[in-house]
Amino acid sequence: MTEQQREEKRYDPDDKTLKFVTRQDDITGDDDPETRRAEMSCGHAVTPESLTGWCRSLLDRVSTSSYALHFKKAHYKNAMQNGPMLKCGGWLC
């Protein structure tokens, strides 16, 4: 595991683009009041760790499929042109 992977993920509390919420994490169910959660555009509340885990699980599913290379190239090209776009709930909310 790299140093970057070991570093605790945190939201920037001064980031005005995020809406912070106090309800439980919709992915893990964590409701620790000391943990900062952000509300995604779909309405789910997530911690940086649970969001990272969810994204990794989606990438793991894709990387084991027969169209993984095509999918990754197409989404990489789209992200480079339009900026990254993340949606949850399987593939889309």
Protein architecture, described:
By secondary structure, the chain is mainly alpha-helical. The protein has one domain. Helices cover 38% and strands 9% of the residues. The protein contains 3 helices and 3 strands. The chain has helices at 3-6, 48-63, 68-82, and strands spanning 19-21, 37-39, 45-46. A 3-stranded antiparallel beta sheet has the order 1-2-3. Strand 2 and strand 3 (45-46) form a beta hairpin. Residues 24-43 are annotated as: Disordered.
Number of helices: 3
The protein's oligomeric status is single chain
Average of per-residue pLDDT values: 75
Query: Unreliable runs, pLDDT <50, ≥5 residues?
Result: 89-93
What is this structure, in a nutshell?
The chain is mainly α and 93 residues long. The chain contains three helices and three strands, in the order H-E-E-E-H-H.
Which SSEs are present, and which pair or pack?
Blueprint: H1 3-6, E1 19-21, E2 37-39, E3 45-46, H2 48-63, H3 68-82
Antiparallel strand pairs: 1-2, 2-3
Essential attributes:
93 residues, mainly alpha, three-stranded antiparallel beta sheet, 38% helix, globular
